[in-house]
């Protein structure tokens, strides 16, 4: 039986996209100035995700502004975060990308993540396979004859 703290934490969890290190994201954060409230966007590369997927999970986002690196740590389930958008995904082999802090030039770039073949159109694949099977199963008479040289 879940305790009251577990119930409260479950209520506070937000529905967020799958954020991984290597993703370029836009974080929409609510900023309160006096009695006015506005939304500020911070776009950068996720270099770390900590504390799992629970209520206390955080992401470290890094961006470079005029040659100077700026990093911010965002609590994912904070009420100050209104939205997180994934702009693009990069191919990485590590869970923490701290090496990007000192990397310069080409080494500071991540490769684009390649996705497997789109499965959105399985009917087109089936028709192509059927055409190939028909072409192979045609009788030899229908094929043009080779002339001896």
Automatic annotation (TrEMBL):
GO BP term, example: translation
The UniProt record lists the keyword tRNA processing: no
Gene Ontology annotations for the cellular component aspect, listed alphabetically: cytosolic large ribosomal subunit
GO molecular function: structural constituent of ribosome
Record SUPFAM superfamilies: Translation proteins SH3-like domain (SSF50104)
A Pfam family assignment: Ribosomal_L19
Alphabetical UniProt keywords: Ribonucleoprotein, Ribosomal protein
Alphabetical list of InterPro entries matching this protein: Ribosomal_bL19 (IPR001857), Ribosomal_bL19_CS (IPR018257), Ribosomal_bL19_sf (IPR038657), Translation_prot_SH3-like_sf (IPR008991)
Domain of life of the source: Bacteria
HAMAP family found in the cross-reference section: Ribosomal_bL19
Entry's family note: Belongs to the bacterial ribosomal protein bL19 family.
UniProt function note: This protein is located at the 30S-50S ribosomal subunit interface and may play a role in the structure and function of the aminoacyl-tRNA binding site.
UniProt cross-references to PANTHER family, sorted A to Z: LARGE RIBOSOMAL SUBUNIT PROTEIN BL19M, RIBOSOMAL PROTEIN L19
Name of the protein in question: Large ribosomal subunit protein bL19
Gene for this chain: rplS
């Amino acid at each position: 039986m879940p305790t009251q703290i577990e119930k409260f934490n479950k209520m506070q969890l937000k529905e967020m996209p799958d954020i991984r290190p290597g993703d370029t994201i836009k974080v929409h954060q609510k900023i309160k100035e006096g009695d006015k409230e506005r939304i500020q966007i911070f776009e950068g590369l996720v270099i770390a995700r900590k504390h799992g997927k629970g209520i206390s999970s955080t992401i470290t986002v890094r961006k470079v502004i005029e040659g100077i690196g700026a990093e911010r740590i965002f609590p994912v389930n904070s009420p100050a975060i209104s939205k997180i958008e994934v702009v693009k995904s990069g191919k990485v082999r590590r869970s923490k990308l701290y090496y990007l802090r000192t990397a310069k030039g080409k080494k500071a770039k991540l490769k684009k993540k390649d996705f497997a073949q789109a499965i959105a159109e399985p009917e087109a694949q089936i028709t192509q396979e059927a055409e190939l099977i028909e072409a192979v199963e045609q009788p030899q008479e229908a094929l043009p004859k080779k002339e001896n040289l």
